[in-house]
Amino acid sequence: MLSDDKRAKFLQLLKETTKDEWVWMNGYLSALTETLGALPPTATRVVGSAGEEATTAFLPAEVESVRSTPISCTVVYGTETGNSKKLSTEFVKKLKAAGHSAKIKSTEQYKLSDLEDESYFFVIISTHGDGDPPAAAKSFVTGLQERKDPLSNLKFAVLALGDTSYPLFCKTGEDVDSMLNTLGGTRIHELGKCDVDYEAVALPWIDDVVRKLAISSSNTVAAKTTANQKAAKPAGRAVYDAKVITNLVLNDVGATKSTRHIELKADSSVVYEPGDSAGFFAHNSESEVADVLRLLGLGKEDRIQWQGETWMAGDLLTKKLSIRFLPERVIKKYEDLTGKTIVPGRKDLDALLTDFKFDAGFDSKKIFEILEPMVPRYYSIASSPAAHGEKEVHLTVAELEIETRTGTKPGLCSGYLSSFAEGSSIQFFIQKNPSFRLPPPDSDLIMIGPGTGIAPFRSYLFERESTGGNGKNWLFFGERNFVSDFYYQTELQAFMDTGLLNRLNTAFSRDTKQKVYVQDRMEENAAELLKWIEEGAYIYLCGSKDPMSKDVDAKLIDILSRRTFHTEIDASDFLKELEESGRYKKDVY
Ligand SMILES: Cc1cc2nc3c(=O)[nH]c(=O)nc-3n(C[C@H](O)[C@H](O)[C@H](O)COP(=O)(O)OP(=O)(O)OC[C@H]3O[C@@H](n4cnc5c(N)ncnc54)[C@H](O)[C@@H]3O)c2cc1C
Ligand SMILES: Cc1cc2nc3c(=O)[nH]c(=O)nc-3n(C[C@H](O)[C@H](O)[C@H](O)COP(=O)(O)O)c2cc1C
């Protein structure tokens, strides 16, 4: 392989070096070869005069990454449902196995002032809402945005988690990647963007980074072994075909709202755990689609080209496109397209087309180019695979009523789900939530779930009843009126009778002059709550984000400030500690 001249130099070098240095060289070269093998096929290899590949052409970029000493890495994750945390844990494990020092922090724990001391900095972060950071990552992202001091010594890489169903796919990861770059950091690996089957992109991305950072010692073996894993083919999300077997209103006569209990039976076993949600793509209503078609001057069978496919206008508007509460970015595109000046604010398409009608002669089919696909809606699963069988999925769905410019409309998906007759067919998928799993069977559990927040706790209680365990259970539930809105009252009463549910506290806000909420019941039971917490109970919260979850947070801090244990840290830090250790979990929306 080597020319005589090179061979002589090589043997001379061997003569001049010790056995230990040979081991170092061996590790160095094997890591280097591994890195080169991973280069994309488009990379140009420079061919030397003797015809052999001149690998030295790659050295300037790769030599930096094949080092003789371990490096210090920080992996920060921003998550809502736990996927980014799971990947970060895996990443840190692999960095350590490759001989580096690596620490993991959540975006909440991470102090941005530590950035100047970082050398290798990795962020794994998802996108939620409409292109927003996870709730716990908001101040991390804002802090980065506001930062002025450059980070010229920082080497970084970002892995973004998202879902291609959303118009702003992986937006938060993109933003973080671009901010670190703008601040002067050196991007050592391209931004990775993961769809719903995130491991298909994430695991090879992690392996590539670990390989790039390989140390020339025996530890590289760990990196090399994983590097051989082939990228899994993206599988997409599993969609289940199901029948609606029950669809009933949980409220009784006199109720001022409507919440439904819906049971689905899938054709095959559904892979889910208590704490997961079911996801749905709703259909727009016939009447709303008819209005939009009329305003566009189109028939429902008119052919429309959309993203490389031919659709009938009616089907495209019914099944695919979002025509409600259009975001400002879509309104802006309508403004540009039609030349109309539009008052700011989100609008439904029917109102937009009525109030800001395009001029005669305008090609109304162009409107389809600016509309975005509908995004899924999620509903916490209220059933338990152990108790209800693996094909059944139960939901607790609050029917929304929205006052709009053109009249009262049902919430898009809650209205869609409510309209299903028993026996009709429906499709759904599972949105996993590894951050909201039942605690170990022998742990005590405090569940705070007013309104539809009760759904996952119904699942937990049935699961605990079926699978056993000695953990105690305490539920706080709240709604408007006892007589009409006590969801699952009979089941909860039965759980009390059998002793599965040790305590049940309810708050019906409209039964008394002075409104009473779950946090008031927590206050009344503060001493007992503190006792449970001191004895190691887990606290889980589910339901509306605002104001309920904020009020409950504030009440927990208030109650914890009266504790007599762990007096050395203040109550809000103590609650944060519970959150970080997984003993305080929230699934709020
Ligand atoms: C993880 C998770 C779990 C969830 N679990 C449950 C559950 O168990 N049960 C449950 O009932 N819900 C649950 N939700 C909420 C659920 O996903 C939906 O957000 C909810 O049902 C509303 O969706 P919708 O399509 O009916 O309403 P949408 O039509 O999307 O309307 C939602 C809101 O948008 C605004 N809006 C929409 N259109 C207009 C308009 N034209 N003008 C003015 N404002 C407008 C209003 O504020 C309205 O309340 C969960 C959410 C998440 C993320
Ligand atoms: C309510 C909700 C809103 C979401 N919004 C977006 C979005 O705007 N853009 C996107 O790319 N992904 C979006 N996603 C998908 C998540 O980013 C994806 O499920 C990711 O794997 C979650 O990772 P995490 O568990 O670390 O939070 C959304 C998911 C949910 C549940």
Short description:
The chain has 589 residues and is of the alpha/beta class. The strands form five sheets. Strands 1, 2, 3, 4, 5 and 6 form a six-stranded parallel beta sheet that branches. Strands 12-9-16-7-8-13 form a six-stranded antiparallel beta sheet, with helices on one face. β10 and β11 (309-312) form a beta hairpin.
Summarize the helices and strands and which ones pair or pack.
Layout: H1 4-16, H2 19-37, H3 59-63, E1 72-78, H4 83-97, E2 101-106, E3 120-126, H5 138-146, E4 155-161, H6 171-182, E5 186-187, E6 192-194, H7 199-212, H8 220-227, E7 239-249, E8 259-266, E9 277-280, H9 286-296, E10 303-306, E11 309-312, H10 313-320, H11 328-338, H12 349-355, H13 367-370, E12 377-380, H14 385-388, E13 392-398, E14 401-404, E15 407-410, H15 412-418, E16 425-431, E17 445-448, H16 455-467, E18 473-479, H17 482-485, H18 489-498, E19 503-508, H19 518-524, H20 526-534, E20 538-543, H21 545-560, H22 571-580, E21 584-588
Parallel strand pairs: 1-2, 1-3, 3-4, 4-5, 4-6, 17-18, 17-20, 18-19, 20-21
Antiparallel strand pairs: 7-8, 7-16, 8-13, 9-12, 9-16, 10-11, 14-15
Helix pairs in contact: 4-7, 7-8, 9-10, 9-12, 19-21, 21-22
Bound molecules: flavin-adenine dinucleotide (FAD) and flavin mononucleotide (FMN).
CATH superfamily of the largest domain: Flavodoxin domain
Gross morphology is globular
Number of strands: 21
Structural class from helices and strands? alpha/beta
Low-confidence parts: 35-65, 217-228
Bound molecules: flavin-adenine dinucleotide, flavin mononucleotide
Question: Any idea how many domains?
Answer: 4
CATH class of the largest domain: Alpha Beta
CATH topology of the largest domain: Rossmann fold
The CATH architecture name of the largest domain reads: 3-Layer(aba) Sandwich
Task: State the end-to-end CA separation.
Answer: 64 Å
- Calculate Rg over CA atoms: 29 Å
Counting DSSP H or I runs of 4 or more residues, the number of helices is 22
